[in-house]
Design goal:
The protein is α+β, with helices and mostly antiparallel strands. It has 21 helices and 42 strands. A 7-stranded mixed sheet has the order 28-31-32-38-37-36-35, sandwiched between helices. Residues 40-156 form the TRNA-binding domain.
Length: 834
């Protein structure tokens, strides 16, 4: 919101010496954010001149220039010669002359210079060159602006170019501050300066009149609330639309960010900025019958003031006459009844509309406007009559109109909500010991009615503060006005005996272990395509239920991920495109796994600013799909580069399995790898990961086509585990064994069995059969070739035996080994290789 200081001073006592920085400092103290100071950036001698004469001189480029003699007053050198290219002025016209030494916006310094064969001793200025308009227009003829000043007088003060505006950011909950009235009230709050409310007028002065046909009906209320709360119509007859907008109004509108569009429209915009209530004016002679406020019929059409024909929804609130729609209520008027240079009779509308209805219409039609911005945030429901009267007064004073007796009004009764503010609540919430008298003083200063009640205050919020809804809002106002700098900064003391949960500790240990092993942690966006969820989010590539976002950031990826792998592929592609070819990445994050046939997003009600009950928490949890935390890995390129005497080591399947074992070690589990299949992974190079017989993830090499589709070259190996499940399977306790002082007995065994038997199953059988003496078993060789029959393989395991109470003999170790072999023979038909 831009606030011209001259305008602000009309309603609050801002010291004459106060600068923009002083006003910023004051407004920041009550919660506004400083943006920038805005002025016209015009300095130096800018004076009123009178054209004495000029000669038209054609140029070779086909352009005509005027060599003018301009009287700028004896104090500024009398008559000066000025070259001008504009053609819209005449001898005798009073104009604005910028003399050498002046600086115009740009900055554009003015100096005497030779041009077109003359020395131009200054410049005759247009409004755009002075910053009074954004348009390229002709020379200012002061008579057209309703001015007849003395030659040589200061044009900067005459045109209001010495004013400055402060721009502050207004948060969405403080719509009342989108007006000079609201900012003046806040300045008075911060400084104690006297405030004069421009809307405070006797009821007899703002009577709406009657006799104008008005019908209001809402057959499709949004959220059960009627779309229009107040609606006031006033009439003004005999206006002269050709009269110029006064310079003070033109300058203020420009500083406030609105361009001048003609006197009648300027007046409506001026009052909107002043009082915060958007105003719309209709050309009374272009209206057909009376005005009806209603919802649109689905598919109905309206051409708005921007020249766009809009197809309407049955949720859009309309202003209509007997001919049909003439405006989108609270957003933008229609072309058919707009004010123009021919308008002589005006119908003035000041209304209050329901905020959600206006917000939906503005977004549906992608049509933000100054009016909708205010209605969305809440307009004072008691200011409409005063705003309409202010417009009528200005049209009478400035446009020569006559206030009509016809009018109409709909006044929905406003009742202020009463809030109970318990004793001690503000101090307990904010942490400052406010005296009850100080709390009452602040609340009354912001416009509340405060009465003493049992155990505290009964507070009624003012009509312009719809954001004050409860005792927490009141406490915030007390802290804001008294000074946020008085709120102490005290860090809470963490209670003893608490820390990370076992799951949090385990997740951090896994992440730290992977990082220590040389992997880089990344965070990818959780949004994917449906086909990515199908390919990586299921074992066989079938389409499983996915969560689709209603308002996705990227419409090409509207689904929440079922797997972390698509995100890692995007990260890898981004790194490869920037020249990083050797990648070892991991991510720990949530995946979203909705169950088939279950509807999520069930509505529930919960009180704000209070801890939800167990029942409400259960409803919340039931309304969202399962979101387990996974860990995923990706390897591409080399894990170690080529060095003298050492070839590069590509990141293959064995590297990924080693990383999986790092996860297992950090989580405190034993993960088994057995051959499996997945849609996105290479057959024969895919492993299923299990813990205690339960599948927890997979590891494998991407199919070449899948890697190519992701724009990745070479072999790409990935792994993904359900980290939450891995941690749960690890259990609460970790058993620590003492180091044995007795030596180990080691033996190897080579078993011949079917090639389709997983090595992990053979290892488990050996472990079970060998009993407690077997300390460790590991696969050291998988041989298929000469000496082994077709369809079979030889697996060699290294066995380590140890007893806790004695030194094992070779015979005891052999006996245990053979017991394990016996189990493999029973289960898989294995035999010891000759």
């Amino acid at each position: 919101m831009r606030i011209p200081l001259s305008w602000l001073r009309e309603y609050v006592a801002v010291p004459g010496e106060a600068t923009a920085d002083d006003v910023f400092e004051t407004l920041v103290s009550v919660g506004f954010e400083e943006e920038e100071a805005i002025g016209f950036d015009v300095t130096g001698p800018v004076v009123v001149g009178q054209v004495v004469s000029f000669d038209v001189e054609p140029q070779k480029n086909g352009k005509n220039i005027r060599w003018c003699q301009v009287d700028v007053g004896e104090a500024h050198g009398g008559v000066r010669g000025v070259v001008c290219g504009a053609q819209n002025f005449h001898p005798g016209d009073k104009v604005v002359v910028t003399l050498p030494g002046a600086v115009l916006p740009g900055p554009f310094p003015i100096a005497a210079r030779k041009t077109y064969g003359h020395t131009s001793d200054g410049m005759i200025a247009a409004a755009g060159e002075l910053g009074l308009t954004d348009d390229a227009d002709g020379i200012i003829r002061l008579s057209e602006w309703g001015l007849d000043p003395e030659v040589g007088s200061d044009a900067i003060a005459l045109l209001g170019l010495d004013d400055v505006a402060v721009d502050v950011n207004v948060t969405p909950d403080r719509g009342y501050a989108l007006s000079i009235r609201g900012i003046a009230r806040e300045y008075a709050l911060a400084t104690g300066a006297a405030f004069s409310d421009p809307a405070d007028r006797p009821a007899s002065e703002i009577a709406a009149g009657d006799g104008f046909p008005l019908t209001v009906r809402d057959d499709n209320p949004i959220r059960g609330e009627q779309g229009v709360k107040q609606f006031v119509l006033r009439t003004v007859t005999g206006v002269d639309p050709t009269r110029p907008t006064p310079t003070w109004m033109r300058a203020r509108l420009q500083l406030a960010g609105l361009r001048s569009l003609g006197l009648l429209v300027d007046i409506t915009n001026y009052v909107m900025l002043e009082l915060g209530n958007p105003i719309h004016g209709y050309d009374a002679d272009r209206l057909t019958g009376g005005i009806t406020v209603r919802r649109a019929a689905e598919g109905e059409k309206l051409t708005t003031l921007d020249g766009t024909q809009r197809v309407l929804s049955d949720e859009d609130l309309l202003i209509t006459d007997e001919s049909g729609p003439i405006g989108l209520a609270g957003v933008m008027g229609g072309e058919t009844t707009e004010l123009s240079g021919e308008t002589t009779n005006v119908v003035v509308e000041a209304a209050t509309f329901e905020s959600v209805s206006i917000a939906r219409t503005a977004r549906r039609h992608k049509l933000p406007s100054e009016a909708s911005k205010r209605f969305e945030r809440g307009v004072d429901p008691l200011v409409a009559r005063a705003a309409a009267q202010r417009v009528v007064d200005l049209m009478v004073d400035l446009a020569g109109g006559t206030a009509g007796e016809q009018g109409a009004s709909l006044d929905d009764s406003f009742s202020a909500r009463t809030i109970h503010l318990p004793d001690g609540f503000v101090a307990g919430l904010i942490g400052v010991d406010y005296a009850p008298e100080r709390i009452r003083e602040i609340l009354e200063a912001i416009g509340c009615r405060v009465e003493t009640s049992e155990g505290g205050f009964a507070v009624s919020a003012p009509s312009w503060r719809p954001d004050i809804e409860d005792k927490w809002s009141l406490a915030e106002e007390v802290a804001r006005v008294d000074g946020l700098d008085k709120v102490p900064s005290i860090l809470p003391i963490a209670p003893s005996g608490r820390g990370y949960t076992r799951e949090q500790q385990a997740r951090r240990t896994v992440a730290n272990s992977l990082a220590a092993a040389g992997l880089v942690e990344v965070q990818a966006f959780p949004f994917v395509k449906d086909e990515e969820n199908a390919l990586h989010g299921s074992a066989s590539g079938e389409v499983l239920p996915s969560v689709r976002l209603q308002n996705a950031l990227d419409q090409t990826r509207p689904y929440l991920r079922r797997s972390l792998i698509p995100g890692l592929l995007h990260v890898a592609h981004r790194n490869l495109s920037r020249g990083t070819t050797d990648l070892s990445l991991f991510e720990i994050g949530n995946v979203f796994l909705p169950e088939p046939g279950v509807t999520y997003g069930t509505s529930f009600n919960a009180a704000r600013a209070e801890k939800p009950s167990d029942e409400v928490l259960a409803q919340i949890l039931a309304s969202i799909p399962p979101q387990p935390r996974h860990v995923a890995l990706l390897f591409a390129g080399d894990v170690s580069g080529k060095q003298p005497g050492h070839a590069a080591e590509p990141a293959g399947l064995s590297v990924a399995i080693d990383a999986v074992r790092t996860i297992a070690s950090a989580a405190g589990v034993d993960i088994s790898v057995s051959q499996g299949e997945r849609a996105a992974l290479h057959p024969g190079r895919t492993g299923v990961l299990t813990v205690r017989g339960e599948e927890v993830g997979y590891v494998g090499e991407l199919l070449p086509q899948v890697a190519k589709d992701a724009d990745l070259m070479g072999r790409v190996t990935v792994a993904e585990l359900d980290l939450d499940r891995v941690i749960a399977l690890a259990g609460e306790r970790v058993t620590v064994s003492s180091l044995s002082t007795f030596p180990a007995a080691t033996q190897d065994v080579s078993l011949v069995l079917g090639a389709d038997v997983p090595a992990a199953a053979v290892r488990d059988a050996l472990t079970q059969g060998a009993g407690d003496l077997l300390e460790r078993v590991s696969l050291v060789d998988d041989y298929r070739g000469q000496g082994i029959d077709e369809g079979q393989k030889s697996l060699t395991f290294a066995l380590r035996f140890r007893a806790a109470d004695r030194t094992l003999t070779a015979a005891e170790a052999t006996e245990a080994k053979l017991a394990g072999v016996a189990v493999t023979e029973q289960r898989f038909g294995a035999r010891i290789r000759d």
